[in-house]
Write a structure and sequence with these properties.
The complex is a heterotrimer. Chain B is mainly alpha-helical. Chain B has helices at residues 3-31, 38-57, 64-69, 73-96, 105-127, 140-143, 153-178, 180-190, 192-197, 202-228, 234-249, 254-274, 277-294. In chain C, strand 8, helix 6 (173-188) and strand 9 form a beta-alpha-beta unit. Chain C has helices at residues 48-56, 78-83, 101-107, 113-126, 143-155, 173-188, 200-206, 229-240; strands at residues 10-19, 22-28, 31-32, 37-41, 63-68, 71-72, 86-89, 161-165, 192-197, 209-213, 218-223. Classes of the chains: A alpha/beta, B mainly alpha, C alpha/beta. The A-C interface holds A 376, 399-401, 515-517, 539, 542-543, 545, 571-574, 577, 588, 601, 610-616 and C 18-22, 24, 43-46, 91-92, 139, 166, 169-170, 198-202, 215, 229, 232-234, 236-237, 239-242.
Amino acid sequence: MILKSLFFLHLAKIFKTKGAALVIFAIIGCWPFLFHDPYSLRLFTLAGIQILLVLGYQLIFGHIGALSLAQGCFFGLGAYMAGILARQTGLDFTVIAVCAIVFPGLVAACIAIPVLRLETHYFALATLALSQMVLILGLEWQAVTGGANGLSGIIGLNFFGWPVSRGAPFAWLVWLAVGLGAWLVWLMTRGSHRHRLALIRETPLMASAMGLDRDKMRFWFFLASAGFAGLAGAFHVYSQTVVSPAVLHFDVLVTCLAMTVIGGQTRIAGAFLGGLLLLHLPEWFRFLEGWALFAYGLALLLVILLAPEGIFGLFECGWRRFWRSFFPEPEQFSDQPAPSVKAQNDPQRPAVSARAQATVPEKPILTVEHLCKNYGGVQALQDFALTLTPGEIVGLIGPNGSGKTTAINLLSGLEKADQGAIHVQGPDGGRNKPRIEMTKMAPFQRARLGLQRSFQTPEFPKSLTVKDCLTVTLQQAPSLSTITGDRSKPPETIDACLDSFQLRAYRDHLCHTLPLPLIRRLDLARALSVTPSLLLLDEPAAGLPAQDLPLLSFHLRRAADQGCAILIVEHGMAFLTAITDRLLCLDQGRLIAAGTVTEVLQSSPVQQAYFGRKISS
Amino acid sequence: MDAAQLLFNTLALGSAYALAALGFVLILNSVGTVNFAQGDLVVAGGYLSVTLLSVFSTLDGQSLLYTLFAPFPGILFLPIIMGIMGVLGALLSLVIYFPLRSRPVVTVFVSTIALSIILRSSFQNLFGGAPQAGPPLLDMDHWAYFSEIPPSQMDSQSFGVILVTGLLMTALHLLLTKSHLGKRLRAAAQDPAMARAIGIPVHKMFLLSFALATALAATAGLLLSNRYFVTPDEGAVLMLKAYIAVTIGGWGHLGGAVVGALLIASFEIIFGSVTSQPLAEIALYLFVLGLLFFRPQGLFGEALGRRA
Amino acid sequence: MTENSIKDGLQLCSLTIGHRDHALLSDLSFGLKPGEIFTLLSANGIGKTTLLRTILGEIPALSGEIFWQGHALSPLPTEKRHKRGLGYCPEGRRPFAAMTVQDNLDVAGPPTRKERSQKLEEIFALFPALQPHRRRQAWQLSGGQQQMLALGRALMSSPRLLLLDEPCQGLAPVIIEDLMAAIRKIAASGCAILLAEQDIMRSLTLADHICLLNRHGVQQILEGATCTAEILENLIAKTWQA
């Protein structure tokens, strides 16, 4: 009885969340059976071709967030490749299709490398310039492309040897490709892939800190989008039997962009909806005549202003709301009181020397030498040096403008040092790990070496829940090697992690709705859950209510006991006194004091730097 | 064509491009967004001048109004077009920019693409696809009264274009560097929060920037309309030229945009006279791609850090 | 507002400031009269800058109210508060870097040309060191000159309440002397000054009242005249390592 009700509950959940998409697919599935006159079939085929194009565009524009204006160009390249091959050779369509996919892909690869890293407006310009160039080539290169008239007489499609005639068989072939394409997009963007893409698209800093390689994903998604466009172009040629420079016209991109945005930028069902709707609207509203493009533009503008998730987004929202009344949310497991943090009996951390006596003195894990950074004439950091050994907690203090943030940014890779070197090193103990120079590495590479950092104001994508965030983090863990190489502790499960940070109650909350202290806690949980070798904390206690501080201290000490070396930039002296082994003080870019906490806080230079004179006896 | 003629044509074409590019930069500097519809706003100015010309032509040939203004119809229309389009630009910004301020930059970019589509199809439907001629700046038939040796029609138009552009650019420069309003505009663009703290109404400044940019685009449209005719689809290529000019000159640099525009014009005319027009265009795009790779900050821009 | 509150100056009533829903400083209640220099003294990170920005209108207050000359400020945006007589000199100066010194000042000035040039002469009289650099672009100036420029810019609109955020940060002692003299002159003309500071001696030299802040809110408010360095040192030491 319980099993049955659980089963129905599960079914109801699927119905509520995925139901909207299923409805769209069902409608599309029935469509050709409802409208099977030749004209409607032809429209349906053209819709399929558009959907293929849009699916590709969703990859680069919807998921990666890069405004590529070359989607029409790739469509045209695929079309011409298919048209030329079909006319000159009698190759099977499978071969032609592969060529039509690969050729735009190669072109995309060529311009991707220099151009993908550029900011939006440069990237858009580069893809636009490419499109224009290819259009002119299409118009002028008479010998190959047939000039303004194009090439005609492309008939006779053979698929694995069988001839595919126009009409229903061709429609089947196109929609087979659409189905495969949709499945491929689903594979690339489902589950935690979707979350990773959201991180890369909306919060690149956090993505790098988690070890995600933005450039690699952008590259492959750009290539994939070109491939989809190429295949769509090939199909287009066979449906028209001619290929002309019209396939390279900017209008192709414009329609594709409109369909993507109006349908729903990141939803597969949205691609289907956008393609089908926008293709058929001019037919249904024939009285619009020449104003079809105007309607597209207006619809695009309205959707951007009022429904950023697209029409499918609206539909899905309404669907969920409607069915919520019939299938209410199942009870969340009752909030078990999180295991309380054991009261810290000794606020002072046992000195490192006491711990170190138990083991052989360790080699430093991080060595920083002569680090300098200059911003437009202002020397933000000068001759900064630091060594961290495993298990140490070191504090970095200094008045405003002393260079603390610069130091953290240089260490985490957000800024590149002008001079100096940062080295990380594995410990001895049989395995001689070499010294790795980290000075020029990108942030995500440093994360993969075992360096984690926290943020003062952590930002997470709007669509991620707390659970999603930790899922992505823990899935990245295998790629985040640690310098110590010592993985005696297996990675935690998500729930264990949530419990130890007292976030269990917020498991399914969206990250960006959490108040700042909780987001900070989540950020810390994320950083610590992968057992890093090095941890950089940027004012972790700032703005935290007093009752959160014991939990923070507890986790930092636990991490240190496991061998993590921690550098904390902080203002709160009380907090630092309780937790750090030693302190460094910066003033106007230079180190002015180093030593134990008491030594540094009592020293004249430090007190002078802060208050202008000595304050304590 | 001799070198002098080439130079003259280059300056004339470059002037028109420069006006479009300047408007582009104004919007870029104040609100940080690329205006994809800039070229279409130029075309809008062109069509507006065509409409004004047809209205003007219905005037009685003997009337005082006609005699007074027939010698320089284009110049007469200039303030009218700038005024109308300026207001239109401010209104447009209320739709395509202000509601989207808090969204990512790409969203505003796409909204300007939507605007471009709307404008383009409106032109296609309202005016048809055939090229239409706008009013000349100086109508030479009437100048014959005053001079025994009328200069050639072509040269005088080009001369007019260069002169008008020069005057407008000087006026813009003076506005931005010497006038109180212009300085406030620049301050609002550089640091909106600080500008508010010293009492500058930042939103109004943004509206003004849009109005100015549209007025400049419209002027470019008027200047180009006589010699190059007006077609609905011109906007896309014009926008691309403005975009390229701004990139060559250095993103956000007003003077650089002018230099970039002149460079593009010389590329087209000089390169085009040696080889063919399409080849010149391809060469231009290849140059742009190379520029983006090696020196994205252009001629006068600061070296921008590539985004991580 | 209570009986004791200041009707012609700035009065904070149980003001809580912070970001979103986490508070930095709670239940702030103090006031300053015209012509008074009121210093907020604390180490960095406590929330001095956030407080100044809240009074300016950039950040909304979490609870409580700010009264200026008897009117509540919370419904007003920054531009309107500026019209009421608020002036702001931010941390790090923030001049309009690509504009000249003259333009930086001009932009902040009164609407008519005559008033503006009058005001300009006043500012150059107050900061003679800026005069030779009138036509230079702001980014080319030294730190001290930029600070004078930022202060001058705030003064162009003849504010009655000046919010100064760590004006002496990163400047040479000699420049600091000149700056402090200028601040005294401004206060003498009747302008109320709310000054955020870290340095004990500077606070003592300038302030009529010193307000010590710690991470909860106001620790203590002291009279500048009767306060000594030792008293401040002891008070700060209590929270410095606590």
